[in-house]
Amino acid sequence: MDVDSGRETPLARRGSPRFIADRPHLVDDAEAALRLGKHVLLRGPTGSGKTRLAEALAERLGLEMESVNCSVDLDLEALLGYRTLGIAEGRTVVEYVEGPVVRAMRLGRMLYIDELNVARPEVLPILHGALDHRRRLTNPLTAEVVQAHPNFCVIAAINEGYAGTSPLNEALLNRFVVFDVPYVQGEALAQLIREATALAGAHHVERFVRLSADLVRASEVGELPVEAASIRALLDACDLSTQMPPLRAVRYAVAGKLSDPREQDLVMELASSYFGGA
């Protein structure tokens, strides 16, 4: 087995890798928009680092983050909170537990809304008042008007063109400034691999960078689905390759996530051109 490591195994590492972009101005520009009181929409394919970028921006701004992961089951309670039974002075009472939106507004935190365009459109208008110049919303669960803390800001992320997504309505989209987050490539990707995975050997890092470029090109021309080019999946393959042959690592981490056998074969054919003898 050709194992290329030289570092601690993934089990020994903690935390998520920092955001690295091959367009250095992306982080600075998004930070500038937030400091100007704008809300930010990150648009890019799955695995391109949108969540890590949001975390990096929260760190730069010194803000705690509240998160909402959207799905077709997202409802007002998931956003605003819910009522539950509690005990006060020996009596059963109805208590209100704040949701992430209300908590972020009240405490001046960053609200990160992942996969915004997966949520049902009828749920999202409750956010309109919080996202425009009013910076407030009326909580239908309590009838309270929640006024946002001056530090409150929102970052939302979307993956366009995926199953289960729908276009954002214009009223909601206009409340954001939009930043595209493409897959990191080239030397920036090599740096990310070195920092975020256990892979240390320069020759294998270079091969994975070139394989990523091939996967991105194949996805751009429709030969592969976009998820085949996921940087998250590539990093998984890099980690696995320190414990097994790289081709097996690519099969498990990249090709195995695809449902079409022809697409799986194409991924492995591309990988074989770099790791055929590994």
TrEMBL record:
SUPFAM superfamilies attached to this UniProt entry: P-loop containing nucleoside triphosphate hydrolases
Domain AAA+ ATPase: 36-187
Gene3D superfamilies with a match to the protein in the record: P-loop containing nucleotide triphosphate hydrolases
InterPro entries, alphabetized: AAA+_ATPase, ATPase_dyneun-rel_AAA, CbbQ/NirQ/NorQ/GpvN, ClpA/B, P-loop_NTPase
Pfam families xref list: AAA_5
Molecular function terms from GO: ATP binding; ATP hydrolysis activity
Similarity comment: Belongs to the CbbQ/NirQ/NorQ/GpvN family.
Protein name, as recorded: ATPase associated with various cellular activities AAA_5
Organism annotation: Alicyclobacillus acidocaldarius subsp. acidocaldarius (strain ATCC 27009 / DSM 446 / BCRC 14685 / JCM 5260 / KCTC 1825 / NBRC 15652 / NCIMB 11725 / NRRL B-14509 / 104-IA) (Bacillus acidocaldarius)
